[in-house]
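PT: before anyone asks, these are the final sequences, not the draft ones from last week. 506 residues across everything. Please model them as a single complex and drop the result in this thread when it's through.
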Amino acid sequence: MNDSNEPLDEALLPRVRVVLSHTTKPGNIGAAARAMRTMGLTRLILVRPSQFPHREATFMAAGAADMLDSVEVCDTLDQALEGTTIAIALSARRRDLSPVALDVREAAAVAVADAAKGGEVAFVFGTEISGLSNDEVLRCQRVARIGTSAQFSSLNLAASVQVVAHEVRYAALGNQVVHETKTPLATHEETERFFVALEASLQRSAFIDRDKSGRVMDRLRRLYGRAMLESQEVNILRGMLNAWDTSMDKRGD
Amino acid sequence: MNDSNEPLDEALLPRVRVVLSHTTKPGNIGAAARAMRTMGLTRLILVRPSQFPHREATFMAAGAADMLDSVEVCDTLDQALEGTTIAIALSARRRDLSPVALDVREAAAVAVADAAKGGEVAFVFGTEISGLSNDEVLRCQRVARIGTSAQFSSLNLAASVQVVAHEVRYAALGNQVVHETKTPLATHEETERFFVALEASLQRSAFIDRDKSGRVMDRLRRLYGRAMLESQEVNILRGMLNAWDTSMDKRGD
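LR: through. Structure below.
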């Protein structure tokens, strides 16, 4: 994670809400809140949960339990969708009559693109056992599916929320890994001086013939090139060569 | 999900193993097994778990509990990595001395590319509180990071496994949503006959002027074009027009 400075698109995440409809187990509400929070989603709306607030919800939210204080609870899906410009229903089943179905990654892209235009987006999750009703799905403009194994497609509610929240964060912020190494890379000259010393040492040790060292040196260049040597590492390698060279000198005495 | 026929690359998934090192809570082992199973990953290896087998593991695995029968338990990470060509350590922390760090999506791509060449890949997860030791990380060739909120980065173990397994499945199989509608789309002629009837009806109703109907009709073409009308839907729309036209006729009597 890039923890030095948050990218600008973090600001889109509060425009993406999660709606849990008729959740039966309060623990799943807490686990969903935690899953959202790890990915920077903060707005959770519940439609007629069986039990909420509940100690199981608080327990499963763990360090994200404060998020449960701002949860909104509604009587109808229409209330939960107030103000939304796009509502996306999570649904594993194929239905005869359904909005356009998207893969979860496409759905995240649609959501973030709309939020970037100032829209308000909802991802809507149904009850644990049977999912969303047809009536609920048809209140949404899109259906999203998470690809699962045909042999075992039983993603639990919090796991589905986790995958969606991850995809939304990724769509908004992209790759957040900074690839720079902390320590500086070796310069071309440092690396070349190492190769000269390495070749000389390998010839002295008779590992390679003086007249046909090319092939072996090419492979070693490939290896060390792939590693993208740091300056300190070249120093270590040169030190190793020196030690071997010194030992060979002594033996030669 | 495309449940009609599994794509070929499903065959890569058994070449990607999940290694959980020193897991303290047995429930997390079960939840991780379930998370893997939903995404088609089947090989789970444990390095010195605190307690396993355990009823909490079985409970949390839910419908994937049979996967726990084939779990391998080892004493060392080296044993768990036997036969691997690439080992990828999950790590949230930035470390002074670390293998090349990849974003989780890049890591999944690397894993699947190697598995496609016949390689064996491991994703390695550390203990719940402190993650992997430096010694463990340095036995891996890559580090993978899951992007999380700077305010709350506490992804639990099973949630991390879920995100990784989802990314691996997606890298192997891609978008699995079949976008075809079940019902056939309307032909160009059906749609055009509808537009002719619609324009005539809107002129009769005086909603649009006979001489400047272009702008409104352009917007309606855009709307219905975006919807990609099905044949049956055109029939319904024509039926509605007919009903309005008949009502207008009667009123005109």
